[in-house]
Amino acid sequence: MKYYFSQELTEKAGKIARELEMQHIVLERIACVKSTGSKSKRTIARIHTLGKVMQLGMQEKPFYTIEFISENFDKQGIEEQEKTIIHELMHIPAGFKGGFRQHKPFVTGKKVEEMWEKLKQNKNSP
Predict the structure, then answer these.
(1) Which residues form the Putative phage metallopeptidase domain (predicted)?
(2) Cβ-based neighbours of 20, under 8 Å, separated by 6 or more
(3) Which residues touch 124 (CB under 8 Å, ≥6 apart)?
């Protein structure tokens, strides 16, 4: 697998987080990368964090990286890509301390759709 930093996706994720008022997300402490060479057929993206032990050892604050698997993410249309970004951002808990929110009850298809509808409305409002 190869990984590439994506300024474009990092900016897009930040824009979506701002538009959806995800104020708990420290935008300077998230980044997006694209990966190539995955054999995965189902995984589109995944979120990684700097674990607590590493944070302490490095004397760093929490940091989240969203990995987009190019073979699968790039096949999606714009709307589905936005939903994927929303899905991954929703895994970041309110405390922004380096942990994750699990799928149920926090990150579900229904909740992603609701957030995407809100994003769409924000785009259409003057």
Answers:
(1) 2-103
(2) 86, 89, 115, 118, 119, 122
(3) none
Which residue is it, tokens 């302490």?
A: 56
Looking at CATH, the fold of the domain delimited by 2-124 is given as Zincin-like (3.30.2010)
pLDDT of residue 125: 61
Whether the per-residue pLDDT at 74 is higher than 70: the answer is yes
4 near 34, Cβ under 8 Å? yes
pLDDT at 126: 57
**Over residues 95-111, mean pLDDT:** 81
Reference 81, options 32, 122, 121; nearest CA is 32
How far apart (Å, rounded) are the C-alpha atoms in residues 39 and 21? 35
Q: Which amino acid would we find at residue 21? A: E
pTM (2 d.p.): 0.91
What are the residue ranges spanned by the domains of the chain? 2-124
